[in-house]
Automatic annotation (TrEMBL):
It comes from Streptomyces caeruleatus. SUPFAM superfamilies: ATPase domain of HSP90 chaperone/DNA topoisomerase II/histidine kinase (SSF55874). Coiled coil: none annotated. This is ATPase. Residues 16-97 form the Histidine kinase/HSP90-like ATPase domain. Keywords: Kinase, Serine/threonine-protein kinase, Transferase. One of its GO terms (molecular function) is protein serine/threonine kinase activity. CDD domains: HATPase_RsbW-like. The lineage of its organism: Bacteria, Bacillati, Actinomycetota, Actinomycetes, Kitasatosporales.
Amino acid sequence: MSSVLEALPYRHVLTLPNEPSAVRLARETAEQALVEWGIGLHRPVVDAALLILSELVTNSVRHAAEESPQIMVVYAASGSHLAFAVHDRHTHQPLLDRAGTSTGLGTVVELTRQLGGTAAVQGDADGKSIWITLPL
């Protein structure tokens, strides 16, 4: 995942309290960053990307808030790709290939793949990040 991120010249990092208001703030920040980077919000993939981002932040709020009072959202883009990650300190690393489509995470993975993108979990000493990369 780091090689993909290195190829994306636009980056922004946002740290938020892991509470319901984080969903709106993460989404609004994504919209602002995309506009600043010259990526039009009218692109069909942008609505889906914002939905995916909202679901990932919601998932962290629901399942990781006790272990992770803050979350970090990383946004990155180029003229041809958009990537973002939601990082929390919860140690559980979900298996994305086994996420059922009836779950929020399963829907995220399925939608990401339908859009030609990738989804990955990256663990580290401080928890995990779920990365989404989408072609623009």
